[in-house]
Amino acid sequence: MAKTYRIGIVGCGGMGHSHARAWTDHPAAEIVAATDVSEEAAKKLAAEFSVPAVYTDHNEMFEKEDIDIVSIPTWQGVRAEVTIAAANAGVKGILGEKPMAASLGEANDMIDACEKNGVKLAIGHQGRFNPNSNEIRRLVADGAIGQPTMVYHRAKPNAGLLNTGTHAIDGWRYILSDPETLWVVGQTSRTTDRWERRSRCEDLCMGLVCFEGGTRGVYEGDLPEPKAPMPTIYGTEGQIKVGGSGVILSGSVMLENGQESGWQEITPPPVETNQYQELIDWIEGKIDEHRSSGRQARYTVEIMMSIYESLRIKNVVTMPLQTRECPLDLMIDDGTLPVLKPGRYDLRTPFPEKEQPQ
Predict the structure, then answer these.
(1) Burial status of residue 247 (CB atoms within 10 A of its CB: 0-12, 13-18, 19 or more)
(2) How many domains, in total, are found in the chain?
(3) Coil, helix or strand for 72?
(4) Cα–Cα–Cα angle for 308, 351, 156, nearest 5°?
(5) Signed CA dihedral, 9, 48, 126, 317: sign only
(6) Which residues is 286 bridged to in the sheet?
(7) Which helix (H) or strand (E) holds 9?
(8) Which of 30, 51, 131, 262 could be bridged to 46 by S-S, CB 3.0 to 4.6 A?
């Protein structure tokens, strides 16, 4: 008889509901507890998905409930604390959200705690399960565009590096078959007191990433217009872009490599699993590692922190990055990035003083 995994959820906002929905639909899972600092949010999720136990303290949940897998779709600033507590409590698997953490030191601590306790840690970079991403990865690995030379991403406006950069940079690494990073150079500006999910956020940034083999990644966040039309990936013998909406997660895959005239349109085959099933498969030893493991997600955090670090040290950052703290926070604290336009604001959820009276 197949095992039924007992699921706990910490963080009952929008992504918490997404995780709850996926676990509810999984035949081998049963959600037994939900936790949020807002009791109202926890009760709302529990009512929607028939969850029997509600908590406002994750440590109390881990102490009282027998949990096999915990989903942690919290904001990034508290995710390390909850992940480490879950690992020490003896769960079998953890599915966190992205970004993995708010600093490289926190990401390292999460991995160390999970490895010490034999816990499987995955991070929800769900783009790795998208048919387009997998087809592009296959084409690149098969040499369809020769040696890959450049990947590019211009972030949506008013998002922040930790918000959209984590998707873009992890996506680059995935379609390039997860290469090592050699060096990073970046620029960052912060003159307003900008936050995102209660972590301090830059006003704009750009990053140039060099992967092993020489492939460059170019990231633009809130840079001025005009924007440059770019394919998803360039190579020495061709290029790949995504049709339809023009983003990597939707539309058909378009290949141009000189073997046929013009662009070839490719319909990717479906991916026969998802991040929830793959975590169970990893726990049961059916696969060697989850494609969105904490180990892979750590690389993305390291690259984002290196974009900030490049400004802090005014130089190229050669990997591995040694700075545990978030370099953006360090520059704000030491006065390198002073606020010139006072008044803190959060891109996602208003601070209490910004909320409009009813």
Answers:
(1) middle
(2) 2
(3) strand
(4) 50
(5) negative
(6) none
(7) strand 5-10
(8) 51
Q: Which sign, positive or negative, has the C-alpha torsion 189, 169, 95, 133?
A: positive
Opening angle at CA 58, ends 53 and 63, nearest 5: 75
Residue for token pair 């369809």: 144
Scored b (16 or more CB within 10 A) or e, 305-335 reads bbbbbbbbeeeebebebebeebbbebbbeee
Same domain, 334 and 201: yes
Single-letter amino acid, residue 230: M
Please indicate, yes or no, whether residues 112 and 191 belong to a single structural domain of this protein: no
**pLDDT tens digits, 278-307:** 999 999 999 999 999 999 999 999 999 999
Chain segment 51-87, per-residue pLDDT in tens: 999 999 999 999 999 999 999 999 999 999 999 999 9
Report the distance separating Cα 10 and Cα 51, nearest Å: 13
- At residue 322, φ and ψ (nearest 5 deg) are -100, -15
Do 170 and 192 belong together in one domain?
Answer: yes
Range of the domain at 85: 5-126+274-291
